[in-house]
Amino acid sequence: MKKIIPSLDYESELWQNGEKIVAGIDEVGRGAWAGPVVAAAVVFKPDHKQIDLVKDSKMLTPSQRARLNEQIQSSCKSYGIGVVDNVMIDQVNIGTATKLAMQKAIESLENYPDYILVDAMELDGYCNCRYQAVIKGDQIIYSISCASIVAKVARDNMMSKLDKKYEQYFFDVHKGYGTQKHQQALQEHGPCDLHRYSYKPVGRMI
């Protein structure tokens, strides 16, 4: 099976067409039963040299993600992180919450981008520039892959910190996703104020 390695081809074409600030955007946490959804936006300069081993965050180990996250943040032109908590997710639904997180990530960049590359998410009404939503963008577009890593590390760190307050749910282990260990904790203790009550597996426990 041929390995898919993300490249700067999309970004390079946009730079050549005069788009100076090109941001790659991705999110993590849509499928989790607890905690926030987190998005990241990453901007590189046209002379950026690709970092080895960068790929979709789901294909990396935690130690690889941590190391790459440091390299990305130190070598990029700018990065931004957007967070939308579980309360807002329940109020507006996860699709809208994800777009809001992406909007926050974009707005926290050093400069507003001229163009956005985003992993399979339509952003009409949530950004003030042109964008392209690319299916499996986190696998083929370098800046989106980098954003997936930055977002994943940020969210995992948040859930690890929250674990200290909610030790009985083991958030440090499963990060809020619906693993067997999480299901067992829910059955024993019921939902806490970090859970997404609009999600059916959690709602059934109320």
Descriptive notes:
By secondary structure, this protein is of the alpha/beta class. It has one domain (9-161): Nucleotidyltransferase, domain 5 (2-Layer Sandwich), CATH 3.30.420.10. It is built from 9 helices and 5 strands; from the N terminus they run αββαβααββααααα. It has helices at residues 9-16, 62-75, 86-92, 94-107, 137-140, 142-163, 171-174, 180-189, 200-203; strands at residues 22-28, 37-43, 78-84, 115-119, 130-134. The protein has a 5-stranded mixed sheet with strand order 3-2-1-4-5. The N and C termini lie far apart (45 Å).
What characteristics describe this protein?
five-stranded mixed sheet; alpha/beta; 9 helices; 42% helix; Nucleotidyltransferase, domain 5; 206 residues
Produce a short descriptive summary.
The chain has 206 residues and is an alpha/beta fold. It has helices at 9-16, 62-75, 86-92, 94-107, 137-140, 142-163, 171-174, 180-189, 200-203; strands at 22-28, 37-43, 78-84, 115-119, 130-134.
